[in-house]
Amino acid sequence: MAPRENFGSRFAVIMAMAGSAVGLGNIWRFPYMVGEHGGAAFVILYMLSSFILVLPIFFAETIIGRRSRQGTFGAMEKLAPGTPWKWLGLFTVVSPIIILSYYSVVGGWSVEYLFKAACLDFTNAEPSEIQGFFGQFISSTGGPIAVHTIFMLLVAGIVLAGVKKGIEGFTKVTMPILFILIIALAVYSMTLPGASEGITYLLKPDFSEVDAHAVAAAMGQAFFSLSLGVGTILTYASYMRKEENILASGVGTAVSDLLFAVIAGFAVMPAVFAAGIEPGAGAGLVFDTLPFIFNKMGMGAPWLSAIIAIIFFVTILVAALTSAISMMEVGVAYLTEEKGMRRGSAVLAITVFAWCVGVLCSLSFGPLADVKLLGNSIFDFLDKLCSNWLLPAGGLLFTLFVGWKMSRADVFDEFTNGGTLKANVALFNVVWFLLRFVAPVGIVVVFLTNLFL
Ligand code: TRP
Questions:
Q1: Would residue 2 count as lying in a domain?
Q2: Are 255 and 47 in contact (CB under 8 A)?
Q3: Ligand 1 in reach of 261 Cβ (< 6 A)
Q4: 81 in the Ramachandran plot: left (φ > 0), alpha (ψ -120 to 50) or beta?
Q5: Residue 4 domain flag
Q6: Cα dihedral sign for 137, 190, 183, 250?
Q7: Is the pTM of this model over 0.85?
Q8: Does residue 24 have its Cβ closer than 6 Å to ligand 1?
Q9: According to the model, what pLDDT value does residue 308 have?
Q10: Residue nearest to atom 10 of ligand 1 (CA)
Q11: What is the domain extent for residue 273?
Q12: Which one of 91, 270, 408, 440 is least enclosed by Cβ atoms within 10 Å?
């Protein structure tokens, strides 16, 4: 077998991991979750779960991935041969493919918005017209399926070409650009007339709206946003060099992801209020507000707003692609490494499956709107199932694996690079405690309260 490839530098590792982490979860999902669950209080819960419950899972996945140098399934076989832990490997292959299916629908929406912006369709449109367009578009049949297909083919094409070489070069360039753009957008958005209400909304917590569902949603958002619980980060960590610092990569990724989400919140919320949109409007929130901001930024010149909009939707698309690739790669790694499939066949199988599920998700905004699973549309059901249940469950099992199945000596060795990294040695007991007790107990408590309250 050819020696496994490694990422070339710490910067590359963080950018690739951040490329997976930063995506529609930050730009699309985070703002509307904040709007649905009461603003600043949700942001605080999300930050707490990111650092207390979810960052330990990041360490768990990187420790497993780098120690085993295998994808999820192989990792379990290598570190705990012949045990039922291999089922965890298998379980974590399924959820990213489900996520990919509805993620691609939203990715498709951004493709549509890119086309629209390029055709100057949003120029000088009133907020109500923009909102009307979104509702009409997603509830139609052919259009959303067509753009979902385009997005899916883009993902398949990149994964087929082999991401390992591509990921590093691609993400190293695009992630910093996206970061700069989103900051610029947030700064601008906060200066809009009427923006201050949105800023207050993000900064002044009102805990009266927080219930068990909000807590579960905050944890789910943290898992989703950091791509944890399904072995994505584990798989990337298997390409990390031995001398890389797990603590630094984890904190680096988590902080960039969190910052990105919060800045996206500051780009979107002030504009939501400025445009008079309801913050709890749901999945369309970002799509309703961005064209409004771009119009204002164009200062009456249609070509200027169109250029700004195009640059933005392209980068959003790229961010969505770098995340979607990482979802598909988990399944592809499994099918090629464990099932001996050719890369092309693996990509084809996953693409067809995820595309079909995605079509159902897309139709659930229109013709299939009446089909309810436990009171949710197909799209919402799959999103909640994955984010609030499957990802935390996968994460829980990963921490239990590292905290209770692996030996302390092995975990110490991996986390501190054989005791050579001083800060990691000093912090090891804290991390070990979070991994063994705090994260698992916290996740179970959130599960139970969500189930029974
Ligand atoms: N974190 C990505 C985002 O915020 C989405 C993502 C990529 C993901 N890989 C994942 C989510 C694995 C859950 C699991 O857009």
A1: no
A2: no
A3: no
A4: beta
A5: no
A6: negative
A7: yes
A8: yes
A9: 87
A10: 227
A11: 10-452
A12: 408
